[in-house]
Amino acid sequence: MSNDSWLSDSERRRLSKQRNDGAIVAALAFTGLVASFMMTLVTPLLPELPHLLGVSQTDSMWVVTATLLAAAVATPIGGRLGDLYGKRRMMLVLLGSLILGSVIAAFSSTLIPLVIGRALQGAGLGVIALGISILRDVLHRDRLGKAIALVSATLGIGGAVGLPVSALISQFLDWHMLFWVSGTLGVVGFILVFTLVPVSTLRSAGTFDFIGAIGFAVGLVGILLSVSKGSTWGWTSPLTLGIGLGGVAVLILWTLFELRTESPLIDIRVAMRRSVLLTNLASVTVGFAFFATAVALPMLLESPTDTGVGFGQSMLIASLCLMPSGLVMWALSSTAARVTDRRGARTSLLIGIAVITIGYALAIGLMTEVWHTVLVATLVGFGVGFAYAAMPTLIMAAVPASETAASNGLNSVMRTLGSTAASAVIGVILSVNIVTVNGVTTPSTFGFQLSFALCAGAALIGLVLTLLLPRRQPRYDTASLPVQS
Questions:
Q1: What's the pTM value of the predicted model, to 2 decimals?
Q2: What is the Cα–Cα distance from 466 to 250, expressed in whole angstroms?
Q3: Domain 269-485: CATH class, spelled out
Q4: Per-residue DSSP letters for 295-342?
Q5: Per CATH, is 1-208 categorized as 1.20.1250.20?
Q6: CATH 1.20.1250.20 region(s) of the chain?
Q7: Which is nearest to 167 in space by CA: 34, 317, 343?
Q8: Arithmetic mean of pLDDT, 110-118
């Protein structure tokens, strides 16, 4: 529903000003980079966190887990609130959460305040889905593809490019400086969105589904907790099984509730459309394959050379080796958009997942030189860039314009689910398959090869799912995007 009756007098005056589309895209891309940077912000600190906080290694991992859970829950809920009450407004709220979380973390010296701060930072990841939806509202169709590809790719670019920055700060400055930097970047993003992004005139009718939001959050957190903590708690322990199965049960009940709700958090009938469902399932496999580079490759690069497996590099050097992954996503975003415009989003997704598969297939045999890891990371970045550029287009071609942000948010959750699974599964594989030489223990060559083979297998599943996507999208009258022929 496009209706300026939602707007205040000041908002109407802002809309009357001439827009600079390039500035809007730049502002949304910058906020996407800042939000995705939060996901790898503390990675260089992980080995030192138990000592810095005076806690066990297991407890210190809540600093990462809380961020992941908050991002997964806040993204679709923030998207639905954006559809109802204004996407720009919700972007500012989520950026405010990121800034507040950064300040709390910057003043933290114990675990609980730091976990709270990191959870608030994680909620900021929802700005990427909202940003993509804003692009759909404000840009001309001819400019939309490149802009969506760029903003969508920031989910990978920010983490890959920001990791060396985090490593540099962690190595030479007080660790609290990480959060002052992230807070400053959040303030810049807030100012850019407030001054450059127009207010939202396209909003949904209806009310916010509080019960659905609570049910979705409880069910999703249960599943993600069991996956991320299964290796620590024990995969067959009552706690892991209880939380995981409980989460599944809650989501089943939530689905039944959403089908009966007049204004649901997520329209299940739309989510079950063939294009939406298959794209979301393929997103799980891409998220799995992409996040594995952040788990396996740094460990390979940083493992001591004594066992003949690792390369003995520092965290900073390892981060620089992975940085081309993010740079190639940025460089190829316009190319991916052109392919999507000319051949369709399905083709772009096929190309992306095929390149990811090739990259991991090569990784199984290329493990003896540092440049091998750079090559693999770059190929995976190439593939993920194409895949991330295609997914929002596939989603928006099949969902109503009034549900753009919520549907993009759900797609982001599916990527997160894949990433969480990758972190847990690859972590278990590398911790079980080890080799010890002269008292030095590292993951074995077989452990790394098995991890890469698993990622290639996940990508192959994604390839099959993509092949099952219809070559021509069904023409939905209310779709967010015109259907490409």
A1: 0.81
A2: 29
A3: mainly alpha
A4: HHHHHHHHS-GGGSS-----HHHHHHHHHHHHHHHHHHHHHHHHHHHH
A5: yes
A6: 1-208, 269-485
A7: 317
A8: 93
